[in-house]
Every structure is written in C-alpha cells, then in structure tokens.
Design goal:
- The chain is of the alpha+beta class and 272 residues long.
- Helices cover 30% and strands 25% of the residues.
- Strands 12-11-13-18-19 form a five-stranded antiparallel sheet. Strands 3-7-8 form a three-stranded antiparallel sheet. The chain has a three-stranded antiparallel sheet with strand order 4-6-9.
- The longest helix is centred in the N-terminal third of the chain and has 24 residues.
- The chain binds magnesium ion (2 copies).
- One magnesium ion binds next to loops.
Length: 272
C-alpha cells in the first residue's frame, strides 16, 4: 500500500471494503441503539453485537484486540471509553450509554461509536450528547484534502469549549484500514504542533470524547475502564471517514442513517 508521510493511502477497492466494514458496523450500532432502554443489562448489548456479527458473517474487531475481552466497549455515564458490558449493570432511566464497536470485513476494520440516551435524560445530559455529536461533524468538515490533520482537533476543541464542555486529551482518533489503529493520530484538541497534511485516500477515525466537567480521566484497575476524574458525565461519537477530492466521505453511516442524514442535510458537502 502506498504511503504519504507514514500514512497509508487506500485505493478505491480498499476504501470500498472499509466502507462495507463500517456500514455493517453502523447497522449493528443501529440494532444496539434500538435495544437501549431502562431495565436491560449492558451484556444484552454485547449479545446483540455478537449475534449480528454471526448473521453478517463478520468478526467483531475489538474482541481480543490488545486483550480486550468483549465485542463492544460499553461505557455508562461517567465512563468515558473502554467500559466492559456486564450482566449486573442494569441501565436505568436517565443514564447515557456509549457504545464503541467495529467489525472486520474484506481485510478492513470498521470503527464507530455513539452515545445513546436511556429513556428520558436530563437537559444537561441531552445537551452533552448534542454538542458531542455536532462536534464530530465539525471535525469531519475539516477533513479536507490539503488540510493539516490537526485542524480537525482545533475545530472540535473550539466548538466544544465555546459550549462549556471539555475535550478529553488522553485518547485520540486515528488512521483506519487493515488495522484498527494506524497513523496518523487525530487529536480532538489543539496539540500545538503540525500534523500530517491530509491526502486523497487517507482514512481516519474522528472520535471526540466530551465531558461535562474536567477533561481529566482515570483508568480503573481492570486497565480498560476509563472514567472522568470528577465523576461527571462523558459522551463519545465516532465516524470513520475517507479523505477524497470532493470532501470527506463518511464510511460508518448505516443504511438507515443514510436516509435520515440525506433528509436532514440535503445541502451538506460531506459525502456519504
Ligand atoms: Mg471506536
Ligand atoms: Mg477509534
């Protein structure tokens, strides 16, 4: 595979496979989102992910990755990322639950995340979800050919902080392809340095993690579960995208999402 500044450049076939891996990932995230409601154990969401992977004949990409023991990362309330699904963690009205998920297809790995409300949530939580999801699209709009990859984080951070929320520094987005984590790093904040200049064929995951309070996080003794240090809520939205001459192409849109997105943003220059 061709490289530019250490970053793999994908050809059309590779981008098509990456799109399919991400389309399946996103369709399964739709199914998981449909199941989120008060009273269910988060392990139910894991079970849906595994069952759907069998139906699609794909492998869950997170399972066993660096020793991660589940198909989904399931992060409730103050858990920012990398939470474990559990039989005993029962979702209740007012919770928020972030699900990060990916599958392997055609030698490529999908990667996408969303935060779902559980029943009726507080106004503050609702605003956290809306700002986090909107900040993802603010970041995606910067993923243009010729832009420094760090312009994404600068835009995300500005957008989020103007609305009174914090952006996590500890984890960043990344290149996507045959491996879940490739070069370049895609910070959600201004790292104060120059990054790679985005080129046609670069594929990256943009994934703002946004907090209600401080952006400082702690990792629990299980070595995965990452929580906000002040115990306040955190949200996480992620899309995998390809940089094209016509603008960013969202790879991780579901079949259902495609219809909704086109209806909502008919003028949007983001390709899907
Ligand atoms: Mg992810
Ligand atoms: Mg990712």
């Amino acid at each position: 595979m061709k490289k530019y500044q250490g970053v793999f450049i994908k050809n059309e076939r590779e981008i098509a496979n990456l799109r399919e891996a991400n389309r399946i990932t996103a369709n399964i995230l739709d199914d998981i989102g449909d199941a989120v409601r008060p009273g269910i154990a988060t392990m139910e969401l894991e079970n849906i992910a595994r069952r759907k992977c069998e139906e699609y004949h794909v492998r869950p990409a997170f399972l066993g990755y660096a020793g991660f023991p589940f198909a989904i990362c399931c992060s409730v309330n103050e858990v920012v990322v990398h939470g474990f699904p559990s039989e005993t963690l029962i979702l209740k009205e007012g919770d928020i639950v972030s699900v990060d998920f990916g599958v392997e297809y055609g030698g490529m790995v999908g990667d996408s995340a969303r935060t779902f409300p559980v029943g009726q949530i507080s106004e503050e939580a609702d605003s956290l979800l809306a700002v986090t999801e909107a900040s993802l699209y603010v970041g995606i709009n910067e993923a243009q050919q010729g832009h420094d990859v760090h312009s994404i984080g600068i835009a995300v951070q500005t957008f989020v902080e103007q609305r009174g929320f914090g952006v996590v520094r500890r984890f960043v987005g990344h290149g996507v392809g045959a491996n879940m984590h490739e070069k370049p790093e895609v910070p959600n904040f201004d790292p104060g340095t120059r990054g790679v200049i985005l080129q046609h064929g670069m594929c990256i995951a943009i994934e703002p993690m946004v907090t209600e309070g401080t952006y400082d996080v702690s990792i629990l003794p299980d070595k995965w579960t990452t929580v906000t240090r002040d115990g306040k809520l955190a949200a996480h939205f992620e899309h995998s995208i390809a940089v094209t001459p016509h603008g960013p192409m969202i790879l991780s849109e579901s079949d259902r999402g495609l219809v909704r997105y086109k209806a909502q943003y008919p003028q949007n220059r983001i390709q899907i």
